[in-house]
Amino acid sequence: MTVAWVDVGQRRPVDPLLGLLDPWLRTRRWYAAGAGPAGPLTPVVADVVREQAPALVHAVLRTAAGQLYQVLLGLRPELPRRLADAAIGRVPQGEWRGWTLYEATEDAALMGVLLRHLAQGGGDGLRMERTTPLPLPVGLVPRPLTAEQSNSAVAYGDRLLLKLYRRPEPGPHLEVETLRALTDARCARTPRLHGTLLSGGSGLVLGLMEDLLPAEGDGWQAAVRQVADCVDGTCPAVPATGGFTAHARALGTAVAEVHTALADAFPRVRLTAEDIARQAAEMTERLETAVLEVPGLARHRGGLVRLYEDYARAGARGCAVLAQRVHGDLHLGQALPTPAGWHLIDFEGEPARPAAERAAPQPVLRDVAGMLRSFDYAAQAGLRTLRERDLDEAPGARLRRARRARAWAVRNRRAFVAGYAETGGTDPHCHPLPLRAFEADKAVYEAVYESRHRPSWLPIPLEAVHRLART
């Protein structure tokens, strides 16, 4: 990766801050798990956006392992109590000696400074390359969005969303490229892109500015709440519909509409038998690696390998599979219910996969499989919510609730597929084998994730693996 240095004059303003940043980086949600100590840190990009208090410094840092991390840092002689949780430490030397260094995205005043800086062009450092002619409304009130994610986001009023890539990549960037194409196509199911954040000649894509969608929460939150109500018997809808199926069906329609827009904007390819065999081999390779980390997968290894081999054999028999640009990491948390219907967000793809692999054309069934897995997860999450409320749950009630949760997942999975089939160019019902293979591959990925981060959730993907390996 070739990344140029961008600086303000000949100064290295971030150097006195580096000692504080190493331990702090390791506490961040977006720091690579298992990466170990970050230092020694090397500034790749550094820019003082504002020098006087409160100061704002933008930087991209390279760790000893070669990973890149983007930071927005605030500095104040004294930190207000409202920003106490954002504190990183006291600067030991340099022009800000004795000042407190802190996470700038938590400071509305500095996020307002940043918006005005970007609206004015940004100069040689951090700047925005505009994709629409509309001026940025600099008077909007900023607020950080606190949802746990691998990037950071700041909302400006009810109109704009600034997304900062904490682990930036050289362009062209998958999400920016995708949203630009969907904006040009006037896709009604995705936010409009206003601009891309860049820095001098570094070649890095640092973030984007897009429309803030008018949504109260996301699809995951809505689904989990509804599961808890229905499983507890308080859902106002009749059991046959499950209370969410109309939403699930509409979501299937929305996903199909986005896939159609992506198929028009980017090339579509027909996968050859060799392509499908390679996909199956990659699934098997991921499984073998996962078994070493999650021993509970070992008993299902034979069934999953046979499933992947069946998919490869279907390709050899001439089973037609089309591939195109897809979302790449589709789940209920990436779908927002708005007054105008469902919208999809976050087109970066699965974070653990290399950028080139994420940008490659994929069967749309990968996205469908990801959403099917999400409905299973929502059902189990709603069930967990009830169990945490009712610690004295009787065995009979526990069994009843578990059955209702499974039934909820089945109903909504079917509704989503039906909505997709009505609108999309591919009917998932007609491709059960590749759909099962992609869903199993996703469940294996989930098992590794849960083993690393949430061991108590590991039974959820293991149950799916058990079902898919036996089907």
Overview of this protein structure:
This protein is α+β, with helices and mostly antiparallel strands and 471 residues long. 41% of the residues lie in helices and 18% in strands. The chain has helices at 18-25, 108-119, 174-184, 219-231, 245-265, 273-293, 301-316, 355-359, 365-389, 395-423, 432-453, 459-470, and strands at residues 42-50, 55-62, 68-76, 87-90, 100-103, 126-130, 142-145, 152-156, 160-170, 193-199, 204-211, 269-270, 322-323, 335-338, 341-344. The strands form four sheets. Strands 6-10-11-9-8-7 form a six-stranded antiparallel beta sheet. A hairpin with a 4-residue loop joins β10 (193-199) and β11. The model is unreliable at 1-10 and 237-241 (pLDDT under 50).
